[in-house]
Recover the amino acids of this structure.
C-alpha cells in the first residue's frame, strides 16, 4: 500500500472513531441531564432508538448509492451532515429535540459508514481484507473509550454540551480531509466488468434487492442475523452502562471510565479475531468470540457487584460486542463480491437495527423497573448465545459464494 492509501485508511478509521464517540456521548450525557435539564434518564430509550432508525434508513436507502456513483461523495457528505447534526444535538433542551437530532445524525452516519467499510475493503490487499476492515472499524471502540475516559474533563470544561461539540467538530475536519484525499473515480466494486447483467442478477438500479434472491439470500441472512443480535448487545450496553454501573457502587466519573476501558478492550479483541478470520477458520473464530461474550455476562449475572471483577468481565463482554462490530464487516468481504459489498453492509445495517432497536428500550424498561445491575448486564448473555448458534452456519454461507463465483 502506498502512502496515500494508508492516509486514506487512517481518515476512514477516523469516521469510526467519531461514530464511537458520538454513540458514547448520548449515554454519558443522559445521567447528567437530570440535573442540568430536569430530564428523567428512563425517558431516553427512544432517543437512543432514533439514532438506530436513522442508521438503518440511511444504510438501506442512501448507502447503496455508493455502489453506483462512488464512495467519495457518500462518505464526505455523510461526515459533513453528521458533524452538523451532532452540533445540533448540543442545542437540545427536551427529549423531543434530542430525538430529532439523533435521528438526523443516524441518517447521515447510515449513508456514510457502509461506504467506509466497502472502500476500506477495496483499498486493502486481498489477503488482508478482514484485518484492514477491522482495523478501520476499530475506531468505534477507540471512540467509545476516548469518550468515556475523557468525559469528566470535557464536561468540566464545556458542560454536557462538550460531549457533542467535540465529535461534531471532528466530523467536519474529517469531511474536509477526506474530500481532499480520496480519489473521486469509480470504486472497484462499481467497475463495468462486474455488472449485474453479466452475472445474471436481477437489477442494477437497486443492487440491494439482489441480496434477497438466490444465491445471496442465505449468506445475507447469516450475516445480517449476527449483526442484529450483536447490535442489540452493542446498543443496550453502550446506551446504559454509565447509568447502570453507579448501581454497583461506582461514581458517575468512575462508571464513565470503566465503560471506556471496557470498550478499549474491544480494539485488541477485534484485531485478534480479524487476524484469525483472515488466516484461520472463520466459523470457529466467530463461535469463540461470541461464546466468550456470553460467558462473561453470565459470570456477572451470577456474582454480587465487584468493581474489579466486573471491569474484567466487561472488558471481555462489552469489548467482545465492539469486536463483533469490527469483525462482521470483514466477514462480508468473504461472503459477497465487491460489486455488492456496500449494498450488503448497508442492508445488513438496516436488518441489524431490528435487533439494535430492542436494546435501548429494553434497557430503559429495566431501568424503570429498577432491575439490579447484575441482572441488567446478565441479559446480554442471551443475544451473545444467539450469535454463537448463527456462527455455526458461517461455513455453509461461505461455500455458497464459492459455488457461484469460484476463486
Amino acid at each position: 500500500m502506498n502512502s496515500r492509501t494508508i492516509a486514506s485508511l487512517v481518515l476512514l478509521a477516523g469516521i469510526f472513531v467519531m461514530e464511537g464517540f458520538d454513540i458514547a456521548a448520548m449515554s454519558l450525557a443522559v445521567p447528567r441531564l437530570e440535573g442540568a435539564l430536569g430530564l428523567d434518564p428512563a425517558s431516553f430509550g427512544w432517543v437512543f432508538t432514533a439514532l438506530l432508525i436513522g442508521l438503518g434508513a440511511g444504510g438501506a436507502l442512501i448507502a447503496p448509492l455508493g455502489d453506483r456513483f462512488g464512495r467519495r461523495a457518500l462518505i464526505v457528505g455523510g461526515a459533513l451532515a453528521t458533524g452538523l447534526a451532532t452540533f445540533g444535538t448540543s442545542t437540545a433542551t427536551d427529549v423531543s429535540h434530542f430525538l430529532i437530532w439523533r435521528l438526523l445524525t443516524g441518517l447521515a452516519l447510515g449513508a456514510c459508514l457502509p461506504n467506509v467499510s466497502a472502500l476500506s475493503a477495496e483499498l486493502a490487499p486481498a489477503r488482508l481484507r478482514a484485518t484492514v476492515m477491522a482495523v478501520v472499524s476499530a475506531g468505534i471502540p477507540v471512540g467509545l473509550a476516548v469518550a468515556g475516559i475523557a468525559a469528566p474533563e470535557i464536561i468540566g470544561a464545556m458542560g454536557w454540551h462538550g460531549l457533542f461539540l467535540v465529535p461534531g467538530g471532528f466530523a467536519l475536519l474529517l469531511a474536509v480531509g477526506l474530500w481532499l484525499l480520496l480519489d473521486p473515480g469509480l470504486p472497484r466494486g462499481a467497475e463495468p466488468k462486474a455488472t449485474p447483467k453479466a452475472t445474471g442478477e436481477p437489477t442494477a438500479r437497486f443492487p440491494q434487492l439482489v441480496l434477497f434472491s438466490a444465491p445471496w439470500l442465505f449468506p445475507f441472512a447469516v450475516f445480517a442475523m449476527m449483526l442484529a443480535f450483536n447490535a442489540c448487545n452493542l446498543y443496550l450496553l453502550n446506551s446504559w452502562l454509565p447509568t447502570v454501573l453507579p448501581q454497583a457502587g461506582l461514581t458517575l466519573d468512575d462508571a464513565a471510565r470503566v465503560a471506556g476501558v471496557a470498550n478499549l478492550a474491544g480494539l485488541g479483541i477485534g484485531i485478534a479475531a480479524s487476524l484469525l478470520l483472515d488466516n484461520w477458520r472463520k466459523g470457529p473464530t466467530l463461535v469463540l468470540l461470541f461464546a466468550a461474550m456470553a460467558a462473561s455476562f453470565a459470570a456477572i449475572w451470577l456474582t454480587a457487584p465487584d468493581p474489579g471483577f466486573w471491569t474484567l468481565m466487561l472488558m471481555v463482554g462489552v469489548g467482545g460486542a465492539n469486536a463483533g462490530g469490527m469483525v462482521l464487516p470483514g466477514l462480508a468481504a468473504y461472503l459477497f463480491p465487491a460489486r455488492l459489498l456496500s449494498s450488503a453492509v448497508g442492508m445488513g445495517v438496516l436488518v441489524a437495527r431490528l435487533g439494535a432497536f430492542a436494546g435501548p428500550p429494553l434497557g430503559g424498561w429495566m431501568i424503570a423497573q429498577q432491575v439490579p445491575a447484575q441482572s441488567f448486564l446478565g441479559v446480554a448473555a442471551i443475544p451473545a448465545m444467539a450469535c454463537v448458534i448463527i456462527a455455526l452456519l458461517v461455513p455453509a454461507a461461505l461455500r455458497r459464494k464459492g459455488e457461484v463465483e469460484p476463486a
Q: What stands out?
A: Residues 186-200 have pLDDT under 50 and may be disordered.
